[in-house]
Amino acid sequence: MAYEWRLFWVGDGGNPAGGRPVPGWEDLEERERALGLRERQPILVSPDGRVDPRLSECLRRSAFSAKAQGTQVTYAPLYRLFFTFLWQRELNWDEASEDDVEDWEDWRRRGATNPAPVDGGTWAKEQSALKLLYGIAAQRGLVSANPVTLASPSDVKTSDVKWLSPRAFRLWRNVGLGGMLPSGLEDEAWRGRSAGRDTAYADLLYSSGLRRREGGTLLLCELPALGRRNYYAVRVGQAVAKRAGYTFYVGHPALQRVEGYRMSTRALAVARARQRGVYDRLPDLRIIQRVSRTGRVQWKGDGRMGESALGRLTAAERMRLFVDGEDGLEPAMLWLTESGLPLRYTSWTKVFERASERCATAGLEVFATPKMLRHSMALRTLIALHNALDRRLGLTPAERLHYEEVYGQVWLMVKDMLGHRSEQVTRDVYLEPVRGLQLESLLGDDDNPMNAEKIAELAARTGLVLDAA
């Protein structure tokens, strides 16, 4: 008998990137719909092969289902781990006690047999996940009380380095993703074939401040036409944003690199896939028929028509969308694998990790994550906006102190660009390096490369910004 719980997701049976359906289960999607299961709902299967409908209902329509998709993807595997721990104690998921949770916390954080103990920050996330689920179960009378009663960990820490200076970013991107040597020359030993895609994605995040999922699920039809503007406004759909849709801004150079990828690396991947008939064998495709000016997309699939607002398309639904052009089918999603299939947005974490490992092998102390690029955009934008307003209003450093209300609008603007609900989150989390600095340290003039110099200055002064000489 198996001893581990298993995790599945509704819709995986018809996902283009998930392979062909299991023989005998070709009608899986119809069965899921008949049961009223929600798209991308997690399904947990016990080691004896059973699915508890009560547990599934807790995940189908509740405070859990109201969470952002990324949060659900994070929480569901944590449930599987904890349920497996309980099963090895001969307990079902609904039989957990406070002692069981305390023992789980002790093993996860300090267990001698645990090969990879977690830190306070990771445990805090796991604790929140368990508290949410068992709170739902308690409200529905499935458990007598919520067994998650531990106090929040006191050793929650975040990395001191959250930001990249422009030159540190360029060095990491060129060496880690682009196959260059630290000297700036091409590395003849480089065998990477996705440099165009990877550098374009990194530039997009560094310029726009998009989250990994938001940038990783963009559709071709959502990209603005490249023109002569410095910045382009693009809408993030609410279904792939963390909480709600918002407008982000991407600079011309970053959008130009994205367009270069679309016309080269991506086009070659699509051509290869067409030659091999990859798209002809995919199940459950949705062929886009029309995208209206109001942002509604109509598609055809399985002999029926469907329609939705672009903003309501989930990451999984976006991967199923295709367009049928003059040369044949191609995915509607922007980012593709080498085989021409839509790239799961979660894959970008591994791409960034490999790039940072390559930099380390080259003797460079630069690294990056998608979130660091988002942080960096916020910091650059804040400094640039402060400086621009100082020049526009002609303020002296002394007069600057009297305009705090005016400069409150700067924080609000950055908050909106990041898609935050709270201005305080922007102040406390993203823009920590500038707190406590004298306002005049942010001033500059048109003749100086102020942003890069001031960020380098902050790097030296605070130790919070990753820079490169």
Question: What's the gist of this structure?
Answer:
With 469 residues, the protein is of the alpha+beta class. It contains 17 helices and 11 strands.
Oligomer: single chain
Number of helical runs?
Answer: 17
Instruction: State the end-to-end distance.
Output: 58 Å
Biggest sheet record? 5 strands, mixed
The share of residues in extended strands comes to 5-15%
Radius of gyration: 24 Å
Strand order of the largest sheet: 8-7-6-9-10
Structure in words:
The protein has helices at residues 28-34, 53-60, 69-87, 98-110, 120-139, 166-177, 195-208, 212-216, 252-263, 265-275, 315-320, 347-361, 370-393, 397-400, 404-418, 423-430, 450-462, and strands at 6-9, 42-45, 163-164, 231-236, 246-251, 286-291, 296-301, 304-309, 321-325, 328-331, 465-466. The chain has 469 residues and is of the alpha+beta class. The longest helix has 24 residues, at 370-393.
Question: What attributes does this structure have?
Answer:
469 residues, five-stranded mixed sheet, 44% helix
Question: What is the topology?
Answer:
Elements (H helix, E strand, L loop, with lengths): L5 E4 L18 H7 L7 E4 L7 H8 L8 H19 L10 H13 L9 H20 L23 E2 L1 H12 L17 H14 L3 H5 L14 E6 L9 E6 H12 L1 H11 L10 E6 L4 E6 L2 E6 L5 H6 E5 L2 E4 L15 H15 L8 H24 L3 H4 L3 H15 L4 H8 L19 H13 L2 E2 L3
Parallel strand pairs: 3-11, 6-9
Antiparallel strand pairs: 1-2, 4-5, 6-7, 7-8, 9-10
